[in-house]
Amino acid sequence: MANQLLIINSADTELPAGLRQAVERLDIESRLCRPQEALEQLKVLDQNTAVVLALEKTHQLEGDYLEQITAEVEKLSINTLILAEDSLLNNWDEINDYKRVFPARRGESCEMLRGRLAMLLELQPRLSELNAELKMLRRTSQPMSSYFNQVDEEMRLAARLQRDFLPRQMPQIEGFGFASVYRPATWVSGDIYDIKRLDEENVGFYIADVVGHGMPAALLTMFIKQALVTKRISGRDYTLVEPGEVLSQLNQELISQKLSDFQFATCCYGLLNTKTLMVRIAGAGHPFPLWIDRHGRMREMEAKGTLLGIFADQEYTTQSFQLDRGDKLLLYSDGIEEAFVNDGPDQPLRFRQEFEHLAHTDVQTMCEKLVTAIENQEGSLHPRDDVTIVGVEIFFSPA
Questions:
Q1: Is the pTM above the cut of 0.70?
Q2: Out of 77-81, 187-191, 216-220, which region has the weakest mean confidence (pLDDT)?
Q3: Does domain 4-134 have CATH number 3.30.1370.10?
């Protein structure tokens, strides 16, 4: 219980009888002061002191001191009982923004006032303790807030840097369409992709997905971007590297880094000849590319291989597929599977059913519709994994 009571009495006479009797029965030390002295008294008030503001006249609500006193006790987190006539309390809305000030009528009985005062006196020490803890937390939170703001800004910059490693525009090749979706689960992504024209006849494309999340995964994607070699140049000549060999070399690069956190990655790399429409694909633990023909029929290109960064001297096989006019090819990260999985791991992925009505749309529309479908999933505001899609479409066969 609070150790004393400060009574601010506006009347020239003694305290109301009910209040005086209630204070006597509580047997607690009390001090009296006038409103003009109240602000000075409050400045030196012990934190375990409760306050009673006894008003005699209605017009005293208009005095500046009432606003100042109620504001001061609110700032100091001091529970205060305001004792006034009914006519003043009926206008309580004018000052009811103060959460620590509780109204009571001057005519209330001794027992009623005693109960109200006992409540104030009981709560005031606990309120003081909470207020002290709050001040301590605020002092602690200031450097923490500055730290988190700095981390947030660094993550924003990291996200911007990572996006700079992505293709700025799709290849412009007559008769072909290219599209992509890149949706990190957080500021940065463990996914990375690229689509680029390697020469007059060939387009290379890939998706890589680092196992894990956050900044470590994002940093490794940038390493993969630089370590993935698709073309060997010797003087004025060059040779395109077969997809299987691309992945083998990338695997060796990851192994040679001897990463301390045992970070691994999946990848699917493809090479499309725009003249023959032959696509050569190799995979390293990545979801199989989806091949959609012009009739809307779907099949997976089974590009099998182990994860990158686990076994040294690993060989990856290149698979060849002959595409035709109207065909589409979709590469995606496993975030798609996470977003569209049904009732359990043994259930088929619903995203393939989504394609039933998307199969005859162009690849750009297909990607946009897939993003919309993902956003409509429960909890999509906080996606469980990064989502990346690369799409290729053949509008017509070359002459």
A1: no
A2: 77-81
A3: no
